[in-house]
Amino acid sequence: MADERHELAAQDDGRGADEPPRLSGEKAAKPTAASRKGRLTKESILPPESFTKAPKISAKSRTREEENELKRVRREAQRAAQRRRTPPKGPLGRWWRRVQSSPDRISLGMCIVALGVVYGDIGTSPLYTMQAFVAGQGGMASVDRAAVLGMLSLVFWSITLITTVKYVLVAMRIDNKGEGGIFALYTLVRHYGKWLAIPAMVGGAAFLADSVLTPAVSISSAVEGLKTIPVLTPIFRENGNLTMVITFVIILILFAVQSRGTERIGKVFGSVVMVWFAFLALIGIYCIGNDWSIFEALNPVYGIRFLFSPQNPVGLTIMGTVFLSTTGAEALYSDMGHVGRGNIYATWPFINVALVFNYFGQGAWILRNSDNKALQGVDGLNPFFQMMPTTVRYVAVLLSVTAGVIASQALITGAFTMVSEATGLNWMPHLQVRYPARTRGQLYIPTINWVLCAATLTVLAIFKDSEHISAAYGLALTVTMITTTVLLADYIWHDGKRALSLLFALVFLAIQILFFMASMAKFMHGGWFTMLLTAAILYIMYTWDVGTKVERSQRRHMTAKECLPALEMLHNDFRVPYYADNLVYLTSDAEMRRLDTDIFFSIFANRPKRARAWWAVSVQTTDAPYTRKYSVENFGTNYLFRVRMRLGFKVDQNVATYLHQIMHELIDSGELPKQPSIYPKVDEDPQIGTVTYVLVHKALMPESKIDSRGAFSLKVKYAIRKVAGSPIKWFGLAPYNPIVEVQPLFVSTRAVPKLTRVVLPSRKIKGGKHHKG
């Protein structure tokens, strides 16, 4: 009744219930529209000086960064127009014109970025592949010409078939809006069958697990190369953990600079990688010398003969060593969105030739020194370093350390892409994503960055050195390659090329299953850790997917006809005090002409939340970098508004600031009643009333009719969501004290048996009277 009397008193003294109270001593006067703004200034008791520095909407439509980007786009458009006006010369000129106007266009700058971002992992393979081969054969004394030619043949044809044919020529032609990787591929084929989610999840989990091991093994093995420098050898001998400490520091620095963006990192790394691969090629050619007979290994017969030869002491497990030469091939596909397909096409021939020359150079050196008794007793002999002159070895060690860092970068950027795509498939929680560069493909996910960092350091702490880490390395990547082959074959099959699909599946599954079986020999020596990590990531994706499906099966929406009568009654019910002037709900539903039942029941649950205006706001991220647009549906009312913001991926998602702009524009257009406020507020906006933000989370009721798998998946999903972070931070709402509300997930419930009343026995009290308890 007190609230009702307040409403009536407000009407009796000439004010509407929605108007602010007058200051003491002020006479009643009904304000006109023209005088409202001036009166608001007089009545406001906001401090004259700004204290909170709340963000405001600028009068400028573009930031300096956007202006610079616009100038760059205009310059590129002018150059393109100039090229179109200049007729191409000859067939080569016409071909180049077609390439530059297609998705395969080539840029010198992005080619350098591609070198730094994509090829780091495969570029470090020569450091340890032939070393593992010599050790597996029993040392230099046990290696003969047939073994060397066989190994080189297997390496050459593995790189050719797996990297060049499968990934460069086939997989990279199958992209999802320029993006590559197993999740982008699954998006293209998922409508062909639900079962395809299984290989996609397994492959993605394995790739992310390998992303943890790659920085540890690549950087630690490169840092351990410092021990071969004579000046530093005594220092490392006296300090056994020095290599691990240096590796720790390098890994921390690497993950710390990820927020600067892969484009900036790629330009620095790209120049180094160019020098690195040129160095690999030159050293290889130097060691080949005049012995060009080593190229007999290009004949695949040598490889097949050696694979099944009784002189091969390790048998088929030699393929586990051969597989080391192809690690990093998956990065070409997963990082395609970062650098562009055409730039990988342009740079891969150079990379391929450099790798072949280096491997064959190591092979030629092994043949020349197989009878060298001085080398037969060397522990952990590495042909890569031994084949160089001593003076060159200093440069090689320094370059290899840098190459190890770059190898880690290739997997980290691939992991960001993988997680972003998994989020789009609702297989992982929505995380804050930043786009430091000017293309959406180059992203940075802070949570994933530091989770990878912590996991990599944990691996290093457990396994101590590269020798033990390498036992777990590569096993997970064979799983990713197999699952990618399955999805590619399914795409080719449904593309109408069934014979090609069968041939593709048979050839590449046979090769990669052989790789997997050979790598399983490492299981008890460290491979168990990789598979355990893969299983953990797979479990997260699986439970998140199942939980999301359960939630979506219960999602309901209301039309305006269904929800407006109750909302209109509450809006006009003066007996209910205002909960807030503006009650804002964030929703993932982008449809504008309906309302989530979650929002509707939140308004009416327990204590009805009366407001001057209710808002349902959704935010969509666009592929364009600087989009700033919004749409509003008011359902023919002045109290219910459905808002959809479309923000570019480079635009900060400051929902509160943009919503104030929308409110002002709706007030100016007359769609929203004026909301003058005289009291101090965090947002320092006297023309807008109080704003309360609400986020609705779901919870499962104990009586819900749901199987144990679905119930457990929901519990795990909600636990992961707490760890992953809150949308409050993503949308910049923390200063506004938003409310997080938990509502029951409306799954069908079981009938609960009723209670039975138990009558308490009577007891005797003083005075002889009986009293029932």
Question: What brief labels describe this structure?
Answer:
single chain; 773 residues; alpha/beta; 6-stranded mixed β-sheet; two-stranded antiparallel sheet; 31 helices; 10 strands; disordered N terminus; K+_transporter; transport; symport; membrane
The main β sheet shows up as: 6 strands, mixed
Helix coverage percent: 55-70%
Q: Hey, roughly how much beta strand do the residues contain?
A: 5-15%
Report the end-to-end length measured between terminal Cα atoms.
39 Å
Low-pLDDT windows of residues? 1-42
Question: SSE layout and pairings?
Answer:
Layout: H1 2-12, H2 36-43, H3 64-85, H4 90-100, H5 108-118, H6 120-123, H7 129-136, H8 145-170, H9 182-189, H10 197-224, H11 233-238, H12 242-256, H13 262-288, H14 300-307, H15 318-323, H16 329-334, H17 336-339, H18 341-369, H19 373-376, H20 383-386, H21 390-424, H22 446-463, H23 466-469, H24 475-494, H25 498-519, H26 527-554, E1 557-558, H27 560-571, E2 578-586, E3 595-596, H28 597-604, E4 610-622, E5 628-633, E6 640-648, H29 655-669, E7 691-700, H30 708-724, H31 727-730, E8 739-745, E9 762-764, E10 770-772
Parallel strand pairs: 2-4, 2-7, 4-6, 7-8
Antiparallel strand pairs: 1-3, 5-6, 9-10
Summarize the structure.
By secondary structure, the protein is an alpha/beta fold. Helices cover 55% and strands 8% of the residues. The chain contains 31 helices and ten strands.
